[in-house]
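P.,

For your records, the input lines for the assembly:
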Amino acid sequence: EVQLVESGGGLVQPGGSLRLSCAASGFTFGTYWMSWVRQAPGKGLEWVANIKQDGGERYYVDSVKGRFTISRDNGKNSLYLQMNNLRAEDTAVYYCVRDKVEGPTNLDYWGQGTLVTVSS
Amino acid sequence: DIQMTQSPSSLSASVGDRVTITCRASQSISTYLNWFQQKPGKAPKLLIYTASRLQSGVPSRFSGSGSGTDFTLTISSLQPEDFATYYCQQSDRGPLTFGGGTKVEIK
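Structure tokens returned:
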């Protein structure tokens, strides 16, 4: 059974930093692209970033470029999102999502999400 | 960026009704279109991928169609467990983008 379990969310002040983690199991982690998708309270879904199997390609939505860094450790079956210089508008539930092996993205398995609140 | 527009933003329907949700892309995306269902407090669930392919385990009352810029999600006979919010998402080119969502409520 595919499982994705996020951790690391919490309350942080504007300008602060937070590192999210996602523990993956039930599939061969290193063969998949992985994504982070977020959802602000009461709002729709926004794709944040994704990373290729070997970490050699990483893509970000414009609003987080230069502030967020996606990374992975295939030996630990783990995905990460380092978030720096956080803003109020980054407040959201962050989901770890299995992306694709190749071809178009499917986003076929999602974690339960971890809440990040940016507030003073 | 490719903009995804869903309509309607909400609808009221009864159990057994046929429901259709539309998604329009701001430029052609071939069939690189996915549909998700989200219930309150839960993670989204993939229903349909590449416009018309049913994800494993999803009931056959769900179907998708379309190509280019216009797409449709159809629920042939609405069931109580189908009351939720539905999102379309394009995977043709980055950044991946979602529609604003369609909330399906009980009439």
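Two observations worth noting. The mean pLDDT of chain B is 97. DSSP finds no helices and eleven strands in chain B.

Regards
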